[in-house]
Write the structure tokens for this entry.
Amino acid sequence: MRDEEKDQRGRPGWPRLALGALSGVLAGIASLAVAELVATAVRPQSSPVIAVGGASIDATPAAVKDWAIRHFGTDDKLVLQLGILAMLAVLAPVLGTLAVRFRRVGAAGVLFLGAVGAAAAVSRPDSTSFTDALPSVVGAVAGALLLYVLVGRLTAVRRPAASASDLAAEAAGDGVPASAGWNRRGFVLAAASAAAASAAVGAVGRSLNASRGQGAIASRNKVVLPSPGSPAQPVPKRAGLRVPGISPFVTPNADFYRVDTALVAPKVDATAWRLRIHGKGVQRPGTYSFDDLLHRELIERDITLTCVSNEVGGSYVGNARWIGVRLADLLAECGVKPPSRGGPADQLVSRSVDGMTIGSPVEDVMDGRDAMLALGMNGAPLPFDHGFPVRMVVPGLYGFVSACKWIEDVELTTFDSYDPYWVKRGWARRAPIKTASRIDTPQPFARPKAGTVMIAGVAWAQHRGIDKVEVRIDDGLWQEADLAAEDTRDTWRQWSLPWQAATGGHTLTVRATDRTGAVQTDKRTRTNPDGASGWHSVVVTVD
Ligand SMILES: Nc1nc2c(c(=O)[nH]1)N[C@H]1C(S)=C(S)[C@@H](COP(=O)(O)O)O[C@H]1N2
Ligand SMILES: [Mo]
């Protein structure tokens, strides 16, 4: 009896530690399940995993973010969330075992993690209410209570109550001796109920989540894009080459690259959406509804978008046919003048519903190019991932200085007085797209057969236009490639070159010349701060 008491109050044996770890895991799962359920009622972005994930994205040094985008591509967000779950998967059993010795400390640990989630949620730039803390707080309280109760079952000494069946089990020698004094049946019952309750809460959360955003989805389904007053010219037939493996001239929406900091793409209800235009030198600040924009004169343009994080040869570039409102007209209506005509604001800061800030030169968006507030992409309303209901598109500027998705606010200001999101993180204030070219086919390490091999790809220098593409085999002379017809100088241009391939290993290199006569530089630079440069090369082995 004395020994048992000592085991009870003193160092717990491994079976109880293991069950403590299990309790920690069950408490962790319960916390997350409850938090996700509450988050569906508050808003999806308030979930602790999303909030902590978002906060870590913002806190991540540019170099690491760059690396993550490079290595995980569009999966970087998934990898981040899995990382957070993995961290919890380590912490939960640790807290559980700790709780076997120090019940209150273990429970307090769960509450502390909840506080971290709550702090992350309310400090997100798109958080407007302290209710964003609720999912973390309620989840943590549920988890802490559960851990307290479960671990209590592991330590409760109810000697006189030791039942006949416990003693029988001990006699039968199955597992933990009942004489250790803890309430085994109570534990199993509590643990099983907790697991079942978590599963139920998770299922309810999932089905609620599926029905969330219905308003936004319905508002998108109702959008009928009017025919544009200023339609795009038809894409020239010869703009698309028939070479297997080349990027299609128009990138389908489903294949269009996606780069943003949003772990959950915002689902904005277009009927409730408003855009505000205000700030320095805005003589008539304006507020516009989605219908206001839809019923204005619309322009339709083909514009190739590029991300500053695109590596040489990378895939963060795509070409679409956009429909929208000419931004310069809207600004002029509000009384905005570009700096060249005496306007006091040289930076246009666009803000999204999720707190992104993007700064573009006022001069560029008002210099006659087709800068627009886009409402449609390739004939459809914007997909949610690409900024529904409205986003900005500016030919010739990288996305991080121009292409604000889920836009809701346009403020005229100066470059001196305000640094937007990416500039605060070490990226350039101004970033025109660099002249670039890419080999789409053959692919790296391909093994084409000797004979005629088509080398083909795309080249872009938005708003300047591409005038020439040259290809070099190994250290040979530059050979001029055949250029597909140009759609506009705001779009990329396909090119191809038939190559008489001889057996052996070969390095294929491409470079473009834009309409200013500038030849794409061979100087390799990193993506940070204003875009990668250098020639794209592909190594192949001809069989
Ligand atoms: N709200 C918001 N808009 C954003 C971003 C973002 O993170 N949040 N990323 C920008 C960047 S870096 C790029 S390259 C383009 C990408 O647009 P896409 O995802 O439609 O291709 O969106 C821009 N607009
Ligand atoms: Mo980007």
Remarks:
- The first strand starts at residue 274 and ends at 279.
- Residues 237-424 form a domain with the Sulfite Oxidase; Chain A, domain 2 fold (CATH 3.90.420.10).
- Residues 256-262, 305, 307, 352, 354, 356, 386, 399-400, 403-406 surround MTE (ligand 1) (CB under 6 Å).
- The chain has 14 helices and 18 strands.
